[in-house]
Specification:
mainly alpha, 10 helices
Amino acid sequence: MLGDDAELTAAVLAAQQGDEDAFRAVYRAVHPRLLGYIRTLVGDGDAEDVASEAWLQITRDLDRFDGDADRFRGWAARIARNRALDHIRTRGRRPVVGADETELTDRPAESDTADEAIEALATGHAMDLIARLPQDQAEAVVLRVVVGLDAKSAADTLGKRPGAVRTAAHRGLKKLAELLGTDGGGVAPLDGVPPQRGRRPGPIAPDGVTRTRPRTQKDM
C-alpha cells in the first residue's frame, strides 16, 4: 500500500499513462477509506455495489483528473458521494446516517478531547457508531479523518464552507468520544490521517504499461 502523498501522486500520474500496476496501487491505497465513507451513506449491504459504480466512473474519467494525492482523494470522494446519493434516490429511502443524536448527548463525557475516538476510527465498531451521528457530522468525520481530506477538499465534496465542515467534524468527534467513554489526552489535529499500514512499494516509473483492456475490480 502507498505510504505517503508523494507516492500516491506518482501512482495516479502513472495510472493516467496506462500503468496497470500503478492503478492497482492507487485502488489499494484509496478504496478502504472510500468504502468506509460510502458505508456511512448507504450501509453495509449496498456499500460494495456503490463502490464498484464509483470506481467504474473513476476509471473512465481518470484521464480528466488533474492534481495531487489530496485532490485525488477529494475527487474520488465526490464521485463516491454522487453514486451513493443516486443509489439512495433509486431505492427511495433516506441515507443511513442522520439518526437521532439524543442517545449520544445524554451520555456524560469524561473528557473534552477526541483522541481515542480518532484512534478507534480504524475499527468496524467505530464505523458503526459513526452511522449513529447526524448526517453532516458523520460525513465530515469520515471525510476528514478516515478518507484524509483537508477542510477545503471535504467542503468541496459536501458543497459546504470549510468552517462548517470543521465544526461538524469537531462536534462529531466529540460525540464519538462521549459515546466511547474516552479518558483524557491531548487534542489530535483534524488534519492528521491514520497511518496507512503495509509494505512500502518501490518507486513507480512514470512510463507505464499501455492498457490493453478496460480495468475491472478483479484487476485491482
